[in-house]
C-alpha cells in the first residue's frame, strides 16, 4: 500500500467496525501457538539486546537496564507493591498543578492534563504517520519520568499484554476492578447508539455499543475518585475550546469482546513475522486500517472505550499508558530481531495519512512535546538502549 492511498483505506474502518460484532473468535489452538511464537521472538530479541550491550561499562548496561513488566500477577510480572505504587503515582500526577498555560488549554488543571494536552495538539501529526511509533515511545518515557521525579514511583513502566485477554477484556487483570487494577468496566447503559469517532486522515468510524458505556464504578479510578477534564475531541458531545476547555466528568469504559479480537496473538505474530524488515508494513498494519477489526493499536483503544475511543484525548484513561507500552513492546521486539537493520529505519511522512501532504520522515525529523520537554528527533528515540533510554521488555 502506498502512503498516498491511505485516506481511502482509512474509510474501510467504518465497514470493519460494523463487521466486528459478527467476527468469530480466532482458533484457540492457533492462538495458543501464536502466543508461544511471541514468547520465542521476545526471547530472541532479549538475547540480541543483551549481547549488544554486554561489553558496556557505562551508559546503558546489562546491569542497569530497566525491565518493563506486564501488569498481570504471575511470574516475572509487576508486583502488587509496584502496581499499588503506580496507581498512587497517577493519582499524584492528577493532583499536582498543571504547567500548561491557560491560554493554550484553559481546561488543564493537573500535571496529568499536560500529557493529554500534548497528545491532543500532536495527534494530527503522530497517528497514521511515520511519527506514530517514535512520538509515543518518547511520550511514554516522559510520563515514566514524571511518575519517578514528581511522584516517587520507583518501579518499572508496566504494559498490558492484550493478547492474553483477547477473548474478553473483562477477564484482564488490569480491569478486574480490584484495588490493584486500573478500575473495572463502566456501568452498563442500555439502548445506546453507536459512537461516531473522527480518525486522523479524514475518516469517521462507527463504534457499536458493548458491555458498559457508563462511569467506572469500581477500583482506584472509579467515579468520585478520578476526574477526566479534557475532551472529547473525536466524538460528540465535544468538549469546549476544541477539547482543551474544562469539562469535568467521570472516567467511562465500554469493554468490548468484539474489538479485543483485533489484539489476538495471531495479529501480533502477523506483524512480527509478516512485516520482517519492513517498517511501513509494521506501522500500517499495527495502526488502522490493517488487521481485523482494526489493527492492534486501534483495537486496543476500541475495546476499552468510550474515553479511550477519542484518539486525541485518549490518555484521559490511565490504561492508555499500558496499552501504548504494549504497542512499543511490539515495535521493540520487531527492532530487536535485527538491531542493525531495523533500529534506525524510517517510513512515511509527518502528517496523518499524509493529509495535508508533508515531507518524508527522516532521522532528523523533530517531534514537539510542548511543555513536557524539549523536541526530539526520530533518530534520538530510535534505540531503547542508547541516548536517554535504557529499557527492555520482559
From TrEMBL:
<keyword id="KW-0560">Oxidoreductase</keyword>
<dbReference type="GO" id="GO:0016491">
    <property type="term" value="F:oxidoreductase activity"/>
</dbReference>
<dbReference type="Pfam" id="PF00264">
    <property type="entry name" value="Tyrosinase"/>
</dbReference>
<dbReference type="InterPro" id="IPR050316">
    <property type="entry name" value="Tyrosinase/Hemocyanin"/>
</dbReference>
<protein>
    <recommendedName>
        <fullName>Tyrosinase copper-binding domain-containing protein</fullName>
    </recommendedName>
</protein>
<feature type="domain" description="Tyrosinase copper-binding">
    <location>
        <begin position="317"/>
        <end position="328"/>
    </location>
</feature>
<dbReference type="GO" id="GO:0046872">
    <property type="term" value="F:metal ion binding"/>
</dbReference>
<keyword id="KW-0732">Signal</keyword>
<dbReference type="InterPro" id="IPR008922">
    <property type="entry name" value="Di-copper_centre_dom_sf"/>
</dbReference>
<feature type="signal peptide">
    <location>
        <begin position="1"/>
        <end position="22"/>
    </location>
</feature>
<dbReference type="InterPro" id="IPR002227">
    <property type="entry name" value="Tyrosinase_Cu-bd"/>
</dbReference>
<keyword id="KW-0479">Metal-binding</keyword>
Amino acid at each position: 500500500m502506498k502512503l498516498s492511498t491511505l485516506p481511502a483505506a482509512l474509510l474501510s474502518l467504518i465497514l470493519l467496525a460494523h463487521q466486528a460484532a459478527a467476527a468469530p473468535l480466532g482458533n484457540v489452538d492457533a492462538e495458543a501457538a501464536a502466543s508461544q511464537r511471541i514468547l520465542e521472538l521476545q526471547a530472541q530479541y532479549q538475547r540480541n539486546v543483551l549481547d549488544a550491550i554486554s561489553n558496556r561499562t557505562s551508559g546503558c548496561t546489562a546491569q542497569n537496564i530497566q525491565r518493563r513488566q506486564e501488569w498481570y500477577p504471575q511470574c516475572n510480572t509487576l508486583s502488587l507493591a509496584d502496581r499499588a505504587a503506580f496507581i498512587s503515582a497517577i493519582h499524584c500526577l492528577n493532583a499536582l498543578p498543571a504547567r500548561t498555560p491557560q491560554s493554550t488549554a484553559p481546561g488543564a488543571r493537573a500535571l496529568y492534563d499536560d500529557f493529554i494536552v500534548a497528545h491532543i495538539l500532536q495527534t494530527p501529526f503522530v497517528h497514521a504517520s511515520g511519527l506514530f511509533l517514535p512520538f509515543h515511545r518518547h511520550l511514554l518515557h516522559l510520563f515514566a519520568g514524571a511518575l519517578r521525579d514528581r511522584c516517587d514511583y520507583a518501579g518499572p513502566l508496566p504494559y498490558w499484554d492484550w493478547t492474553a485477554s483477547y477473548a474478553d477484556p473483562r477477564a484482564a487483570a488490569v480491569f478486574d476492578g480490584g484495588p490493584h487494577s486500573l478500575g473495572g468496566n463502566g456501568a452498563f447503559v442500555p439502548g445506546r447508539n453507536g459512537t461516531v469517532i473522527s480518525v486522523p486522515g479524514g475518516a469517521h468510524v462507527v463504534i457499536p455499543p458493548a458491555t458498559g458505556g457508563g462511569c467506572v464504578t469500581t477500583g482506584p479510578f472509579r467515579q468520585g475518585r478520578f476526574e477526566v477534564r479534557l475532551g472529547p475531541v473525536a466524538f460528540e458531545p465535544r468538549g469546549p475550546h476544541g477539547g482543551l476547555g474544562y469539562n469535568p466528568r467521570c472516567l467511562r469504559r465500554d469493554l468490548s469482546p468484539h474489538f479485543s479480537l483485533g489484539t489476538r496473538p495471531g495479529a501480533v505474530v502477523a506483524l512480527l513475522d509478516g512485516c520482517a524488515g519492513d517498517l511501513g508494513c509494521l506501522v500500517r498494519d499495527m495502526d488502522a486500517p490493517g488487521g481485523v477489526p482494526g489493527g492492534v493499536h486501534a483495537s486496543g483503544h476500541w475495546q476499552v472505550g468510550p474515553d479511550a475511543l477519542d484518539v486525541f484525548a485518549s490518555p484521559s484513561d490511565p490504561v492508555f499508558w499500558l496499552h501504548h507500552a504494549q504497542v512499543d513492546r511490539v515495535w521493540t521486539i520487531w527492532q530487536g530481531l535485527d538491531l542493525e537493520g531495523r533500529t534506525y529505519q524510517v517510513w512515511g511522512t509527518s502528517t496523518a495519512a499524509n493529509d495535508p501532504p508533508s515531507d518524508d520522515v527522516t532521522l532528523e525529523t523533530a517531534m514537539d512535546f510542548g511543555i513536557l520537554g524539549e523536541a526530539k528527533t526520530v533518530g534520538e528515540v530510535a534505540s531503547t538502549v542508547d541516548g536517554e533510554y535504557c529499557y527492555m521488555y520482559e
